[in-house]
Design a protein that fits this description.
alpha+beta, about 160 residues, six-stranded antiparallel beta sheet
């Protein structure tokens, strides 16, 4: 089992520090691709943030991803984590006008649980290395205190 980026049960019912409006002021995703619904913790010196996603029965993937028993696609969890990486990166390495954070790659991915409509997913992201315009992040997601996703994401500042 990997070292956890946070104690997830501590943050399960935490109030939002920042809502969607603040998130969208820092990252460009909109409409059905705005997967990060709020920030519950941000430790700038540690370059660590915790965000949440509330899976709803109306989410774009529900109708077609295992009809009758909708399960959040792993790629949605990865994108959610990548959006949190961009949010964290926007504080540690603020983009210049016209620049944005983009997805550069992912490794060491493991899915350890299923997320369904009605679930609140806690997502964690921490910058572990930054060189020029490339950031390396550790990411994890938790459901009811249990690790359901982990992966290392590479983010690029374009």
């Amino acid at each position: 089992m990997p070292e956890l980026l946070c104690e997830p049960r501590q943050w399960e019912n935490a109030p939002l520090l920042h809502g969607l409006d603040h998130i969208q002021a820092r990252i460009p995703q909109r409409f059905e691709m705005a997967l990060l619904h709020g920030i519950v913790h941000h430790d700038e010196p540690a370059k660590l943030a915790l965000g949440v996603h509330d899976a709803k029965p109306t989410d774009f993937w529900v109708r077609g991803h295992v009809p009758g028993r909708p399960i959040m696609p792993g790629v949605v969890m990865v994108e959610m984590a990548a959006q949190l990486c961009a949010w964290v990166g926007s504080f540690a390495h603020p983009p210049k006008p016209g620049e944005f954070f983009g997805f550069g790659g992912i490794s060491k991915v493991r899915f350890r649980g299923q997320v369904e409509p009605g679930d609140r997913l806690l997502v964690a992201s921490q910058i572990v290395r930054w060189k020029r315009n490339v950031g390396q992040y550790r990411t994890q997601a938790f459901l009811r205190g249990e690790l359901v996703y982990e992966g290392d994401i590479t983010g690029l500042l374009f």
